[in-house]
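Why does residue order matter? Because the sequence determines the fold. Keep that principle in mind as you read this record.
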Amino acid sequence: MTKYGLALAAALAVPATLGAQDIGLPLGTKAPAVAVQDLDGKAVDLGRYIGKQPVLLEFWATWCPLCKALEPALKAAHARYGSTVQFVAVGVGVNESPASIRRHLTDHPLPFPVLFDASGAAVRAYQAPTTSYIVVLDRTGKVMYTGTGADQDIAAALRPVVGN
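Structure:
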């Protein structure tokens, strides 16, 4: 396992009760633009989503029980705010591959793009301490919310960036 993999694996021991602003990028931070991949291995700059409309990023894995528990809230928030907020799942590169993500999405589709962070560049840039890490950016790319765990109130986290 790589040093990145060990660090993320150790971070997965973080208690699931952590909530908004306990960890990760500080509020007001400008979102970093970083390259990840689509599930076909093509480079995707996360910066292409930033600065146009609000963005919700979830650092996610197929094997993450907290991500699975958070999925209904994310899907409901996407149904309500998906026309005004860009949702993006960033698959972490620990015990994961584009093929394993594609297989998972066949049975458990998500209604928004799923990308892959093979090198851990996005995990490091966004200071993602664990999977189920959510980052909400306003339309200028400023961090408005971060949180982890299955009990995050996604709709409440999005209200300040959508205005209702």
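The first strand starts at residue 35 and ends at 37.
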